[in-house]
Amino acid sequence: MTKNKLIFFIILSLLTAGGASAAAKKSIPSPALAAISGLSAADMPYDSGGTTLLSWDADPTAPAGTVYRVFVSSLETGGWIKAEEFGSGEKMSGSLDLPFWAWKTRPGVHEVKVELNNSFGEVNDGQVFHFKISKVGGAVSAESAAVSGSTRGNWFRLDRLNNIVMLALVTIVFFWAVSHAKRKGLFIRRIAGLDAIDEAIGRATEMGKPIYYVPGIGDMTMVSTIASTFILGEVSKKVAQYDSTIKVPHYNPVVMTVSKEVVKQAFLEAGRPDSFREDINQFISQDQFSYAASVDGMISREKPAACFFMGYFAAESLLLAEVGATTGAIQIAGTDAEGQLPFFFTSCDYTLIGEELYAAGAYLSKDPMLLSALKAQDFGKLVVMVSVVLGAITVSVCSLMHWGVFAQLIANLFKSY
Amino acid sequence: MPDTTLLIAGAWISAGLTIFLFSFLYKDNPFFKIAEHLYLGAGMGWWFQVYLFDVLKPKVWLPLMNHDWLVIIPALLGLSLITQFIPKISWVSRYGFTFLMGYGSGLAIPAGLATDFINQIGGTIQPFANLTGMSAFTFFNSVLMAVGVICVLVYFFFSLEHTGVIKKASNVGIYFLMIYFGAAFGNTVMARFSLLYGRFDKLYAFSSRENFYATQIILIGMVIYFILHGFFAGKKTASGEEAA
Which residue out of B37, B81, B125 would a mutagenesis test of the A interface target, given it has the greatest number of A Cβ atoms within 10 Å? Predict the structure, then answer.
């Protein structure tokens, strides 16, 4: 009996103690969150407008699990839209994706980019928006006073300074190469496939069949199309010299206009302006597959001795080259569309891969300007090769030695913002 | 016309044009020519209305109606291209072309420099920043990528004759390129096959009783045409040879 009483007493004591503890817990008030201080709204630098940069002091005393909520409104009162939510340890000044030369990290400060376009659609320069921050930690919260700010587009992107430095360097090399090419000439290695051009044109002349030159479906702003027109000029010159026939079916009217001038000039330079005909360049269609179907029909009916596919191609590449192959024509292709190159490999006799197409114009014409552009490209490749080797070694050493800042510096240099 | 009639007519036209275009795989024929020219005309007609209603109207006509006179400048530059057709003033088109080229280059060069140049370097060296935490396989992969980038660039280096070490590096670069092209080829062929299956699926749908067996009838009709054409063409050739 005494034993039972003792057990009952112990259980009662424990329960009472638990209850007292819970009551004690309830009675302790939650620590209030520190007020949000130093909130400011500024225009985000180095952008095209529509983004505000909010900054405020971090709260090192904020308990774990505290979150910040960023609200934005286009109205002076009300209409708040939640734009961001993140933990109290996140989005510090250093986490902004900007390089060291364009941004000074402020320790102990939150900095958040608020992209207004996401919430308000198109935002005009100078349009005023209002912002406030709330800090929530469990059952308690604190809210800042509202601040206002407007955005504007920036003319210069300092974060892309590395791009412009590189561009300036390449431009300097280009002008040096131009001057060198004019004085001493520049060396370019032999490009397999281009030597076959003479053979193809000669074959067409002997057989009395036409040559088809397809410049692809690119527009005149594409590098591959520009390169294609240079090659067209050289091919046309040889065609005029051999008194052969060339046909150039076009997808793009602007490319056709340029090509017409190029072919006319080539016939003139070859001393055969009388052989030039306006219908050498024909506009077919600006619809990809109807263009392909029509050129296929033309190739199939006329059975040319040689087909050139030079420029930018998409899904029509195989449709064109396959039909050309069935007619038994010598086929030479060149494109920088990587996805289409395998199809040209399988159906053409010679294929110029990517940059070989750009080089082809310079190789054929030996024009100092084109040669210099090629040299500038080679310089760029050299920079990439050296940078990859040196960068990989340096970054590896930094990683092994735990020199994070130095590694970050290199990462900043080779990033386009 | 009732909807079902329109649907059946659509099925016949669709099945017919598909089979006409596929008939080119056998040889060039009048049916393919019909489909080819129809496709050409329809394509041009389609793009004409797209340019008219999606470009000219919202980007030139409507702003002008709202007194936004600035659009006159690009509109005039665009119109200048048409002067190509009038030899006496065709020189005006050069302004439009020059602007087009300058604008295109201005847009393409910085983008190309950023993606093909700076990002290429950054992307290749970035994995090495985590050297201490990476597995042996990841390390091998990162080195392989870096070697691949360098060797492919050596292949496209035109300023040096490809002999000795350069030739060896260039050959390694070709292997990297060929592996990539093989993968790209397989990927594209798979996508093309899915397009082909799509057309076959449609042809199968058009072969139903509801569509009055459009696929079968057109197919049989074409086979008969080819047999008859082959027969008479053969006869014609034989009589021609006899006459000769």
Answer: B125
